[in-house]
Design a protein that fits this description.
Layout (H helix, E strand, L loop, with lengths): L3 H15 L4 H4 L2 H10 L4 H7 L4 H7 L5 H4 L4 E6 L4 E5 L4 E5 L6 E6 L2 E5 L5 E6 L4 E6 L3 E2 L2 E2 L10 E7 L4 E11 L2 E8 L4 E4 L6 H4 L13 E3 L2 E8 L4 E8 L4 E8 L8 E6 L2 E6 L22 E3 L2 H6 L13 E3 L6 E5 L7 E6 L4 E4 L12 E3 L2 E6 L2 E4 L12 E2 L6
Parallel strand pairs: 19-20
Antiparallel strand pairs: 1-2, 1-27, 2-3, 4-5, 5-6, 6-7, 7-28, 8-9, 10-11, 11-12, 12-13, 14-15, 15-16, 16-17, 18-19, 21-22, 22-23, 23-24, 25-26
């Protein structure tokens, strides 16, 4: 015989066992993947589906579906003034609130973005697919030598390289100013340590008053090396700075220029090479964009594909050509950004898979029509744009933090 209390409890258990599971949880993973992958859902719908539950988020961020949202290469805009980032995939701009701001993007590679505030010792790594960030702080002293002067970290260039298979990365701060010279720092995520590089920073750049803009200060990673374009407007010297990641050594090529101005020479990683695009505009010839300088003697450096650049003429009706900025992330896709005082901002993409140049949707933000000066130092001008190839996953050995927001 059951005690009345035990009988009631048994009835409750029977009802719970007979209760059907939540419909979403009961769907087989294979069926979910097939529905979400094969129904040609809009990017916005897939992005919203990530917020349904943890199971759906894992499926959409997985290898079967993530490229439908993070479509191979995406253009990124850093609206650092209001702590907001924008990503354009194919047919939609998606906004992300950046909770670790105010900081500006200073490097990108392998699906990671690196943020820093000028002269600060704090760097933040951010994976937009996972919406997670990792904070790194440069020690004030390494091996008995100070890394900062009066509390300020004064580096010349910063570069990031990511190992996609292991999700580890290295962050290089080149030309960090110490009391009597410039040295370089490197952070290795495999050991979670900062250290000084033994190889000295190039002597030529020690004496240069380096100005960084138009993609020149942004690092390009290609074939095991990092590349930067820097220049000194006082002596009209442009330099291609190279760091060999395997040997941990520096090299530099330099050339004199007759005239240099914003956007005159741009650098991108494109189809496995370091590509240079000249934007030498004159009243006589509006579209002389072929670079033929000394940097081409390096085996990994070549001119940007001239036929592709010529096709941008067709983007604007009744135009002989426009000054554009180009962004690429190592593959075959290229982004073109046109913004000029008094004109609407326009962004286009060369989509290699279909061999077409298409306009992206109108950006949902307003931008300054010149690169933003960073703080009180006019020699450092921030470029808010970059191209990345997103990648899911972060290294579980590190303390990545998920941002507190539900939507992409």
């Amino acid at each position: 015989m059951y005690h009345p209390f035990e009988l009631v409890r048994c009835m409750e258990l029977e009802r719970e066992e007979d209760r059907p599971q939540d419909l979403l949880d009961s769907l087989p993973v294979e069926l979910l993947i097939k529905v979400l992958r094969d129904q040609d859902l809009p990017v916005f719908t897939l992005a919203e589906c990530r917020s349904v539950c943890k199971k759906w988020k894992e499926i959409i961020d997985g290898p079967e579906l993530r490229n439908k949202i993070w479509n191979k290469s995406v253009i990124f805009y850093d609206a650092c003034i209001d702590n907001t980032a924008y990503f354009c995939f194919r047919d939609r701009w998606i906004r992300r609130n950046i909770t670790f701001g105010p900081k500006q993007v200073v490097a990108a590679d392998g699906g990671l973005l690196c943020f820093n505030e000028l002269l600060s010792t704090e760097y933040v790594m951010y994976n937009p697919v996972e919406d997670k960030f990792l904070t790194l702080n440069v020690p004030l002293e390494i091996d008995g030598e100070h890394t900062v002067i009066h509390g300020m970290l004064k580096y010349m260039v910063v570069g990031l390289v990511v190992d996609q298979s292991a999700k580890h990365f290295k962050l290089v701060l080149g030309g960090n100013l110490v009391p009597d010279r410039r040295r370089s720092l490197i952070y290795d995520s495999t050991t979670c340590t900062w250290s000084w590089l033994i190889n000295p920073f190039p002597t030529l750049l020690n004496s240069m008053k380096v100005k960084r803009h138009s993609g020149r200060g942004r690092c390009v990673v290609c074939n095991g090396c990092m590349y930067w374009l820097v220049w000194d407007p006082r002596v009209m010297i442009t330099a291609l700075l190279i760091f060999d990641l395997r040997e941990e050594t520096w090299n530099v090529l330099a050339e004199e220029v007759m005239e240099d101005k914003l956007g005159a020479l741009q650098i991108v990683a494109y189809e496995g090479c370091v590509c240079l695009l000249a934007m030498d505009w004159t009243d006589v010839e509006l579209d002389r964009r072929s670079y033929d300088g000394i940097f081409l003697c390096h085996p990994m450096v070549r001119r940007m594909d001239a036929s592709l650049i010529r096709r941008t003429r067709n983007l604007w009706v009744m135009e002989d050509g426009r000054a554009i900025r180009i962004y690429a992330s190592g593959g075959s896709d290229v982004f073109f950004v046109f913004e000029e005082e008094g004109e609407d901002l326009e962004v286009a993409k060369y989509w290699a898979e279909i061999d077409m140049i298409i306009f992206l949707p109108e950006p949902p933000f307003r931008v300054a029509h010149e690169f933003r000066s960073w703080g009180l130092l006019p020699d450092i001008i921030h470029d808010p744009w970059c191209a990345i190839i997103p990648a899911p996953g972060v290294n579980a050995e590190q303390e990545w933090i998920t941002q507190q927001q539900r939507h992409l």
